[in-house]
Amino acid sequence: MPLFFSALLALLLVALSALFLGRWFVVRLATKWCQRKLQAELKIGSFFWIQNVSLKFQQHQQTVEIDSLWISSKLLSHDLPRYVALCFGEVRIRTDLQKVSGLFAPFSQSTGVHQKELSFSPSLLKIFCQLFSVHVDSINIMVLKVATSESLWHIQIRESSFLLDSDEKRLKCEVSLNQINSKVLKSGQLEDTCLAELSLALKLCLEVGISSRQLKSITVGMWTLHAELHEGLFHSQLLRPGPSLAPKPVPCPEVTENWAEPTLPGLYLLQQLPDQVKVKMEITSVVLSMNSQKRHLNWTLKLLHFLYHRDEDQLPLRSFTANSDMAQMSTELLLKDGLLLSQSRQRIVCLNSLKASVQVTTIDLSASVVLNTCIVHYRHQEFAQWLHLLALETQESSSSGFKQRKKRTFPQILAPIIFSTSISNVNVSIQLGDTPPFALGFNSISLDYQHLRPQSIHQRGVLTVDHLCWRVGSDSHIQRAPHPPNMHVWGEALVLDSFTLQGSYNQPLGLSSTQSDTLFLDCTIRGLQVEASDTCAQCLSRILSLMDTQSGKSAVARESSFGESVSLLWKVDLKVEDMNLFTLSALVGASEVRLDTLTVLGSAETSTVGVQGLVLALVKSVTEKMQPCCKAPDIPAPVLSLSMVSITYHSSIRSLEVQCGTGLTLLWSPPDHMYLYQHILATLHCRDLLRATLFPESVPLLALEPPVTASEPKDLLPEPSPPKRLLNLTLEVSTAKLTAFVAEDKFITLAAESVSLTRHGGSLQAYCPELAAGFDGNSIFSFKEVEVQLLPELEEMILHRNPFPVLQTLRNRVWLLSLGSVSVEFPYQYDFSRTLDEAVGVQKWLKGLHRGTHAQASASPAPLPPDLLLKVQHFSWVFLDDVFEVKLRDNYELMKDESKESAKRLQLLDAKVAALRKQHGELLPARKIEELYASLEHKNIEIYIQRSRRLYGNTPMRRALLTWSLAGLELVALADASFHGPERVVEQVQELDPGSPFPAEGIDLVIQWCRMLKCSVKTFLVRIRDYPRYLFEIRDWRLMGRLVGTEQSGQPCSRRRQILHLGLPWGNVAVERNMPPLKFYHDFRSEIFQYTVVWGPCWDPAWTLISQSVDLLTKPSADPSPPLPWWDKSRLLFHGDWHMDIEQANLHQLATEDPYNTTENMHWEWSHLSFHWKPGQFVFKGDLDVNVRTASKYDDCCFLHLPDLCMTLDLQWLCHGNPHDHHSVTLRAPEFLPEVPLGQLHDSYRAFRSENLNLSIKMDLTRHSGTISQPRILLYSSTLRWMQNFWATWTSVTRPICRGKLFNNLKPSKKKLGQHYKQLSYTALFPQLQVHYWASFAQQRGVQIECSQGHVFTRGTQRLIPQAGTVMRRLISDWSVTQMVSDLSQVTVHLMASPTEENADHCLDPLVTKTHLLSLSSLTYQRHSNRTAEEVPTCCRS
């Protein structure tokens, strides 16, 4: 037994000795191997146990220390997963990063040597993997000099394990690190600074193919990742690797391949990955801290899951690119519950979930992205320091590799691609600090895209957006709920309720393909709201300034290259519903443009834009936060409304067609114009701001073109570009109504129907069947069959120029205006001048507002204006009568007729009563007779009432007070270079008005024009009321001559101020109006076939009403001077000569007080009349017959026959100054009146106004024209009595018409021309004269006086004597003859009698018996008055 124990002890000692000897031998081999291979020194502290193991690299000063090492088993500890476990205690690693470059060289050299030696049997490897595992309690790694000499990187790993598993095909390696703590420290002068901290739990699983020895799968799991990156990390050199630590270029196919065959970026990296990669990160937290600014950012992520799978065994995707295939693979990335917080715990980024996947099959490549709930709040004030750090780091890291970077070209993908994305609940708000904040959000966006290549490249996609909103303003960063339906929230710059875009693009393959590329787009938008404001422009400008300008250059390059490609056939179908466009201004509120439906259908040949329900409205004050978005018909008080408009453009023929439906309405006013003007200015300012941001260095093209010097040869000059083809335009408007408020209560309305406008080349044509213009609700102007043409030239106008040899211009542009009928109708007592004056003031205000700085006249001469050809078939001008007076006369006529009819009925009743009395005698009761007469009276009343009610049933009521009608009007106005321009117009004025003294300093004209006129009128008719005779009747009137119109520029005192009320915020605007009138200078010649004038005192009441209506057409001058009478006003406005050749002229002077009488009148009849009107003189030449027209057949006779008469009327105007000096008249505004003596009124016309008129009438019959007719006078005793009644009628006193307070007419009565005469002289010269006086036409007895030659002269003066009494009465006219001279020769007097009575023909008996009574060789009569010298004042004779 002792021997057994001794032997056993000996064996144990031998075993222990062998064990220790083996351990020593193994340690010795390991030490030698480390010295030889690793150049490192290996030390083991404990002899019995493996403790305090130290491995030191002398050359690199790196050490690895192991506190303890032991072997355990699953049988001893249930926590161990394997039966044999190699356990390590604490492992400490110390290294220097700057000397680590040569550390891996031995491993790289030895890997190839032992590659064949490390060969295991799969079954043996499987058993080994099932039995063995490695566990480490803790690992401490210290890396010195990470970036600088003062830096330190410390890594601590706790409870790590290493497991292997094998299925004889793959080797699975699983590394589990329960806790990893890492810090990067930098030692400073004062204290150590932590640059970065990291803590996480990691699990790594690798699968390697045993046969191929390639990595097949990687699975990474991370939990509770917490990282802190401090400010010092970004300032240190840790993120900026130096040349020694820079990674050396690895030779790979992606880099070494030929650049002529480009590849997709990242494709090589995907090919190097294992077949399967899984990454899962849970509860991740990253903190960026900036201690100097006391700022930090905290990013937390609940889950990150990445999955990559590649199947090499399946068929790959063939021809992914032109040179490569792609294996089947799938990639998926999932992020959940991400949150980025600032130091104030405010959310910056909030992410619910993000899922992205890519799958490659043998058929196609499909990718999808799904994002749910991403909220971003960017505040530049908090991010400025972080962006500075990141930008500095990015700039330095990118600058180091920028020189090595080459431009990459992407290959063409040949495989089908399917891409889909879905993004929902996204809101991004940005606060940049220097600009107002803004936010962009949407409920959902989905995109489906397909790229197919069957026989051609076919691409199609669908994009859908649900409720996209872009808000700007101070409160835009606050997340809000979606706005209510049909409402606009101020500050929302862009709102899209829904957006759907479908499109496809087809490109034929093959270079020889003759087919064109095709593009089809179909877009539907609902609920589009766009708001333009200064805030929006500032935000856009800020965003564009932050964007890279290189993208714009590349876009331009792509656009230019695309323009050089093949032609494209495209078709676009766009439909927008409920579209609202707003412009917002802090000064003038907002404007709104509403479009119910917008459709766009376009192709390469034709494009059509259709709009349903277009409205422009103003929101003058924004008091609410929301604005209703109503349908177009429901918007109150729109400025512009249109039910439908269609615009079509044909690109091949450059034709544009515009069609407007019914209901085009424009409501305009000066305040609304200012609102629109301010909104347009604000919009243009926003456009300029964005343009300056996009193109900061844009230079006008003219400035870039080098000037052509004289030394350059002419052949090097650029060829002139061909003239651009003009756009053909066609416009059609069904109905249009334009209303312009020129004042608060004054407005002008223009209504048109079926308007068509066409422009082709240089010609323009417009047609409108009916056009009406109203003033203040009264239809004033009405035009029918209106046709307007603008032609480059017209052969008809060339023929019209032939009668004017002085014209220099042979051809000119032409305005051709053709009107079927023109009707002008003024209501009774309507003040047309007020509205017209307000309209002219508004027009001048608009001209000054929009002309701006361009108001100064251009140095270049104005082009020659076009000619005018006006054709009017029928023209009528009507002044409406007072309805009360019309009804009063009609009722009077009815009463007269009814009185006659009632008298007839009374006679019938009287006859019937008489018959009854004869039949019944005294038995007929008197009561019965009284009842019959009472019944008749009652019946008369009923009949009168019935007739009064039916008065206007059959015939309309007369409405016209004055009717002026023209038929067959044709007017030609010719412009010419010989009288175009201010200087030439002034020359024409001096030529046409030589009698007026022209100012030595010249005159400044604001209006000047000169035209050659040619006019023809078939009938010219003027009728007063329904009188049977025309006031004027002219037939076949032709006029030709020259007309000049000028308006002198007034002095500062001759400019009145018109106040225009614009309201807040502009207030009142003063418009300067020129006070000098428009003057006309003429030289006309006209030919008239028939000229008839009818007048009588019985027409004077109606003419008074007409005069009052005419006064309402023109506004009185603002000058407070008494108005000029019509004769002085005509001298002021009209200057020049007028020649008339009249075939037959008639003047009818009515001799009764009944305006409807047509029998009693004095008829002045001219034959072959030649009339000449020049300043101060009227000349009549022709044959004159004066007839007395009466109802009696006996009194109707031609009492005066004057053949070859030359009658001259000389007018001598008695003025304080020169009566022809109209240029010196200076009107003054009320605020510029000079001081006048007390009791005297200011009169700007004082020197020009005529005090009286001296009229000289000369009738010369001594002209010899070869006729045998002689002057004669035929008088009857009844003729003299008729003339006495005629004189009484014409000298009767007229009563005031519609004057006084009752009629709101307190103007002083106008002075009659008959009261203006001061002196009247008459001269008659005749070679022979025959006078017949018959006492009775029935008995034919009388006296005949003959003389051979005679001369008669008489002169009279008029005095106006006031009547006595306090009542204001008319002045009494007192005429007195101051001089009379009569000289007759060879006077013979005969008594004549006829033996027979009146014959049947009512003619004088030619066999009358003459009895000589008296003969005188000479008869002279003279009369002079002593008052002649007193009555003839000194004056200036014209």
UniProtKB/TrEMBL annotation:
Organism field = Callorhinus ursinus
Domain FMP27/BLTP2/Hobbit GFWDK motif-containing RBG unit positions: 1026-1158
Q: What is this protein called?
A: Protein KIAA0100 homolog isoform X3
Upper classification of the source organism reads: Eukaryota, Metazoa, Chordata, Craniata, Vertebrata
User: Cross-referenced InterPro entries, in alphabetical order?
Assistant: FMP27/BLTP2/Hobbit_GFWDK_RBG (IPR019441), Hobbit (IPR045167)
